[in-house]
Amino acid sequence: MADKRIMEKYAELALRTGVNIQQNQALMINAPLEGVDFTKVVVRKAYEMGAKDVHINWVDDELTLLKYQNAPDEVIKNYPDWKVQLQESFAEDGAAVLNIRSTNPDLLKDIDPQRVADANKAAAQALKNFKKYTMNDKIAWSIISIPTGDWAQKIFPDKSREDAIESLWDAIVKIVRVDKEDPIAAWDSHNETLITARELLNKKNYQKLIFKAPGTDLEMELPKGHIWKGGSAQTEGGVTFNPNMPTEEVFSMPHKYGVNGTVSSTKPLNYGGSLIDNFSLTFKDGKVVDFKAEQGEDTLKHLLDTDEGARRLGEVALVPDESPVSKSGLIFYNTLFDENASCHIALGKAYPTNVEGGSNMSDEELDKHGVNDSLTHVDFMIGSDQLDIDGVKEDGSTEAVFRKGTWAFDIK
Ligand code: ZN
Ligand code: ZN
């Protein structure tokens, strides 16, 4: 286990830089039972910082697995109303939401992918309204991770459980800058770098990005009025928060009808407890028309069949290959980390805030602007030190954006 001082610093960072908890604000936390010690530190600090109510939704891998193994189909296919109401009532009250995600990536490997897909779809449908609060930055939210035993041993298979947890703490602490004397100041300066990158891309206003790497040759149109975001976000009420810790990306949205060519994954994707690995997707006019996977092809098919929008893209994110996650040399089998090691794209719903005026557009207007909609949003990694990206400007000229997996510009 991490020492007490580290836990205190990490909890403080999650509350200040992550959700930026305000006086008299409620806080809802989704936390793994294995992380009870850390969660207690977070709760104590949240009250010290002025939170009025802290509610925890406990999750546990073993209990989740028991449900998948034993519950009848109608239970798996139903996301209960009371759970929806609980989350919506916190959101309506303007609560902050802190997600502590530490699932064993292999947890559901022996469960029928159809059951997993059914449960994911039921949750997505039931939480559609709740998700509007987070996906439109109406409330402050943040996702962090702490080590759990099974997950740590997936990353460090040769180590004892205890040593694996210790090693994962070491890795996470470095990646989220908790090893720095003043992690909050370190995040402030990191956010400045990301803001420089996003402002540069917004000024460039590329019409199109072209991705080239082994197994990848993809042309991606960007919608008119697209916005690059990255680093800290702001709620409608003006509170600055960090949705993901770590975060190394600047991101925008592809045009839902303007993606053509083939893209290959560069890291395994953990989708709801199942792994999809070494896969490629071929797009025509924005839609996946062909796909293959060395591992988890069935799971990938279920993901693509979630709904119409699951076959189109909702996010494009640029991450230099020398990010601290990438430098760790580890594969985390957890998107929060792996996506921050690598350029990535997402199947499914786009963030409406990635296009001018998007938060207030009707579904028809969003479609007209090329903004994808879906029940799902799943990031997968396409970056490597062999990835080149070109940007096509308004006048039709082309320039280098990424070379060998990193910025072709000076960003600092
Ligand atoms: Zn992303
Ligand atoms: Zn994403």
Structure description:
- This protein is an alpha+beta fold.
- The chain is 34% helix and 25% strand.
- Strands 5, 6, 11, 12, 13, 14, 18, 19 and 20 form a 9-stranded antiparallel β-sheet that branches. The protein has a 5-stranded antiparallel β-sheet with strand order 7-10-15-16-17, covered by helices on one side. Strands 2-1-3-4 form a 4-stranded parallel β-sheet, with helices on both faces.
- A hairpin with a 2-residue loop joins strand 12 (269-271) and strand 13 (274-284).
- Helix 1 crosses helix 2 (36-48) and helix 8 crosses helix 9 (161-175).
- The two termini are 35 Å apart.
- Residues 315, 346, 377, 379 line the site of one zinc ion (ZN).
Ligands and ions found: zinc ion
Number of strands: 20
What is the count of helical runs?
A: 14
Q: How would a textbook summarize the main sheet?
A: 9 strands, antiparallel
**Which structural class should the secondary elements be placed in?**
alpha+beta
Helicity level: 25-40%
In terms of DSSP E residues, the strand content is: 15-25%
Low-confidence parts lasting 5 or more residues at pLDDT below 50?
none
Number of domains: 2
Overall geometry comes to globular
Secondary structure layout plus pairing:
Blueprint: H1 4-18, E1 26-32, H2 36-48, E2 53-59, H3 61-70, H4 73-76, H5 81-92, E3 96-100, H6 113-126, H7 128-135, E4 141-144, H8 149-155, H9 161-175, H10 183-204, E5 208-213, E6 216-221, E7 229-230, E8 233-234, E9 240-241, E10 250-252, E11 259-264, E12 269-271, E13 274-284, E14 287-295, H11 297-304, E15 313-318, H12 324-327, H13 335-338, E16 344-348, H14 363-368, E17 377-381, E18 388-392, E19 398-403, E20 406-407
Parallel strand pairs: 1-2, 1-3, 3-4
Antiparallel strand pairs: 5-6, 5-18, 6-11, 7-10, 8-9, 10-15, 11-13, 12-13, 13-14, 15-16, 16-17, 18-19, 19-20
Helix pairs in contact: 1-2, 8-9
Bound molecules: zinc ion (2 copies).
